[in-house]
């Protein structure tokens, strides 16, 4: 292949890569059901995903709630907990954490997917809704009759308190050094943040009725509820620029999740109707909204790279047992340098200096 042709092919590839990022986000796969039977538990399931592993709370066997996992690569299911009282799983890397009532009180427990070992994170007796990033696990804790956010460093095995208002909604999120949650400090529920490095708290939202935050990088997203008009929409905040922005204007959106430039949420929420509920998405870069599911019975999405998982009650009941589904989007996964860098292209076509 002569040099002119090589350069032409490189230009074609770069043009495709450039424009593929702005042509719009869309679904590129069929929906795939991960649960063999309709056994996922709705209100306490909240599926989570990291890499090729999906986890959720499952009621198989009847009357018992345990954490189960699914390996997308090997297409195999596996059991993680066996107490019969496990809820609210979260995952980061090889570590799965959840809330479990093992000794008559709810504590946070963990499982190492590599070593197959279970371990206890917190034994406060009232710990729920854990979230994890790196070595830090955070959760909502009602010790002493006050609901606050606590954390634990898995490496040093030290526990620490993050909030002190006693009025948090038990649904924290964490990314890097930043923890976010909904807190009633001044008579209204707003989103607040805490920097683990500087140990400083800060306010994110100011509208009131803000809940269910999620965070990725510098972006925090949450649900803003208007109780008077039964409306809910997704809002965002850029930690770097300190700017708030509205993501949805449909008045029926809630419980967002975020990864990279993609925000996903439940759309079609009607406060007295459980039909026509689906998962929708928004690309922060292209400002484009798009629909992800079409079952009309999809709730509680989570996203990792190009993978969106959710609970679906097309064969179950929103208040009972559901299934876990997954679908893929046409977004680039991994680090930036994995998406056809110039050095890789030059080397592939035999251009540039020889190593």
Query: What's the rounded overall pLDDT mean?
Result: 88
Low-confidence stretches are 9-23, 335-349
CA-CA gap between termini: 20 Å
Overall tally of structural domains: 1
Main sheet summary: 5 strands, antiparallel
Second rung of CATH, namely the architecture: 6 Propeller
Secondary structure tally, helices = 2
Proportion of strand residues: over 45%
CATH homologous superfamily caption: TolB, C-terminal domain
Number of strands: 29
- How much helicity do the residues have? under 10%
Write down the CATH topology.
Neuraminidase
Radius of gyration: 21 Å
In short:
The protein is mainly beta.
Structural account:
β25 (278-283) and β26 form a beta hairpin. The protein has helices at residues 3-20, 342-348, and strands spanning 32-33, 40-41, 48-50, 53-58, 66-71, 76-79, 86-92, 95-101, 106-112, 117-125, 127-133, 136-141, 148-153, 158-161, 168-175, 178-184, 189-195, 200-203, 210-216, 219-226, 231-238, 243-246, 253-259, 262-267, 278-283, 288-291, 298-304, 307-312, 321-328. It has a single domain (22-331), classed as Neuraminidase. The strands form seven sheets. Strands 1, 2, 27, 28 and 29 form a five-stranded antiparallel sheet that branches. The protein is globular. It is 7% helix and 49% strand. It has two helices and 29 strands. It has 355 residues and is mainly beta. Residues 9-23 and 335-349 have low confidence and may be disordered. The two termini are 20 Å apart.
């Amino acid at each position: 292949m002569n040099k002119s042709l090589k350069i032409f092919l490189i230009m074609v590839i770069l043009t495709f890569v450039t424009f593929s990022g702005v042509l719009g986000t869309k679904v590129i796969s069929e929906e795939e059901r991960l649960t063999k039977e309709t056994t996922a538990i709705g209100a306490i399931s909240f599926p989570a995903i990291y890499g090729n592993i999906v986890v959720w709370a499952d009621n198989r066997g009847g009357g018992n709630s345990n954490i189960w996992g699914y390996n997308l690569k090997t297409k195999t299911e596996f059991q993680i907990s066996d107490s019969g009282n496990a809820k609210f799983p979260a995952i980061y890397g090889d570590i799965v954490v959840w809330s479990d009532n093992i000794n008559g009180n709810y504590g946070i427990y963990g499982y190492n997917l590599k070593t197959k070992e279970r371990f206890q994170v917190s034994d406060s007796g009232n710990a729920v809704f854990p979230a994890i990033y790196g070595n830090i696990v955070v959760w909502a804790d009602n010790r002493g009759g006050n609901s606050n956010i606590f954390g634990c460093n898995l490496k040093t095995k030290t526990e620490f308190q993050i909030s002190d208002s006693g009025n948090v909604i038990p649904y924290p999120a964490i990314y890097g050094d930043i923890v976010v949650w909904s807190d009633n400090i001044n008579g209204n529920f707003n989103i607040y943040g805490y920097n683990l490095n500087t140990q400083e708290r800060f306010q994110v939202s100011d509208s009131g009725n803000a809940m269910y935050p999620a965070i990725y990088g510098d972006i925090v997203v949450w649900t803003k509820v208007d109780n008077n008009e039964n409306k809910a929409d997704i809002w965002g905040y850029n930690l770097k620029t300190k700017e708030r922005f509205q993501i949805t204007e449909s008045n029926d959106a809630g419980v967002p999740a975020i990864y990279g430039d993609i925000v996903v949420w439940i759309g079609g929420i009607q406060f007295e109707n459980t039909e026509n509920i689906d998962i929708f998405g928004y690309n922060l870069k292209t400002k484009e909204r798009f629909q992800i599911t079409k079952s009309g019975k999809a709730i509680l999405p989570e996203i990792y790279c190009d993978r969106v998982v959710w609970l679906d009650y097309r064969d179950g009941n929103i208040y009972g047992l559901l299934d876990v589904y997954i679908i893929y989007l046409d977004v680039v996964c991994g680090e930036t340098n994995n998406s056809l860098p110039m050095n890789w292209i030059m080397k592939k076509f035999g251009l540039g200096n020889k190593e």
